[in-house]
Amino acid sequence: MKFAKFYSILILFIILGSIYACTFSSKTNNKEEEFPIPTMTIKPEPTSTQTIFQPSTIIPQTTPISQLEIQETYNAADTLSLWVSEVSTDLIGQNALSILGPPGALECNDRYESWYNDQPESSPSEYLVNLKYDYSVIPTEILIYFSSESVINLRVEMLNSHSGLGVEIYKGEINTGGNCPGQMSIPVESDLNIDTIILAFQNSDPPVHLDAVNLRGHIPNFLDIPVFWRIPIPADYLGDPESDLPGGLATDHFGNIYLANGNNGLSRYDVEGNLVQDYLVPSISNIRDVTIDMNGQVILTDLIYKWYVTFDQEGIQVDAGGEDFGWNSPRDIAVHPKTGNIYILDETDEYSRIRVYSPVNNQLVQDLPLETVGTQMHKGLAFDQEGFLYTLDQILGTILKLDADNGDVVNELGYLELIKALPADLAIDNKGNIYVLLNASPENTAVYIYDSFGSLKYRLGKLTYDGEGWMEGVFLFPVGISISPDGRFLSVVENGFLTTYLLDVDI
């Protein structure tokens, strides 16, 4: 199921990318002039800066998804149900794949849908079956499904495969209440995060038939906090060949949120979700990302004209630059907290690099090469207060911590969780906490929050992949994330909505 979700989402983005590639080529070829010198063409009738959007859960008319049911609340305490994804046994030559997934046995001693020890006469007095699950939960119950009437001794252990910590939770006889096939319930009270169950069976003849093992529990370290506000934003109809998803986000020291909204321009919202300003950008543009420099100036990247543009605090264009970007760049952008240099991700199927520009004269300072495997594999750019640069490697499933002077990889973080997920963007607060936005994850969590050493501290938000259960706190293909420098306001953008949380916990 997890891999089906992953590949479905991957295919969707490939299709969107193909559509946009054709659209981009068409737009580029139809331009009246190439703008060799950066000069902004102003929209003749920009949106009034007095327009106010109040927090709402109404789907904007520009997004043709109004038929989806928008629920009012999400219960983070809902019990999750997991089936075995990997299985092994210490019995030589035994294949226990029948235990994978939900139960399938329809009759007692079912030899096709359940697993059993077919060589009891040559087996040890006790043998083990190791069961692995896609992700860890705080367990509340274990359901073991049998298709035999054997009454033998059983030991059950729970384990966290990363830490190695485990505990024995049951030792006694198998009891299915006389039913065959039947199930045995073991209630669990533990704070240990579990992703592995070990069953130790007493050897018997006839042997026990094991059908499936269900692990139930809650997501560990889930921040069950309400959404502060959620507002509709201008959005493309993604069925249109000229459409695109929104771009990135940035949040300044005052809690203002800057939205790079793709074909829909650049906007600024205040800490309560009110629209403060629509910036004057070219009438044909695709604003992919935005950041705030050391002086509070706003810098965006434009995919159509292939430049970065700087606005002052009043919203007036004061500078522009950039050159020789790939066909699908520039995109992600970040500013060095000490030098003020501008770092821009430039990536194609042939190469991956980060271009570094001087804010003084907009000249290229250097290119920092990134590893590439023939596909666009990096997402997001963010600095910590020490001046280390971070980006996401979607192929390796890790956060890359880079030396901003030469691009060397200093560390790789978060790989235990991100290797099973599809990261989309990241942000960093002044404490060095790293907030990773996800397009897909095995437990359908939207945000992982790591400390500066790469240890997962919290999970936040949920994901939907088809619009079912889409409501506040649940995201459909989110693309951008930002955090206020003090770590109080966390914002996420998806097509049609901008959401902000007030983090009232000590991250």
User: Could you say what the CATH architecture of the largest domain is?
Assistant: 6 Propeller
CATH superfamily membership of the largest domain: TolB, C-terminal domain
Q: Could you tell me how far the N terminus lies from the C terminus, measured between alpha carbons in angstroms?
A: 32 Å
Low-confidence stretches: 1-7, 13-76
Q: Structural class per helix/strand content?
A: mainly beta
The count of strands amounts to 34
Please give the share of residues in helix: under 10%
Total helices: the number is 2
Beta percentage is 35-45%
Structure description:
The protein has 507 residues and is mainly β. It is built from 2 helices and 34 strands. A hairpin with a 5-residue loop joins strand 27 and strand 28. The N terminus is likely disordered.
Features:
single chain; 507 residues; mainly beta; Neuraminidase; Jelly Rolls; 9-stranded antiparallel β-sheet; 5-stranded mixed β-sheet; elongated
Give the structure's gist in a few sentences.
6% of the residues lie in helices and 40% in strands.
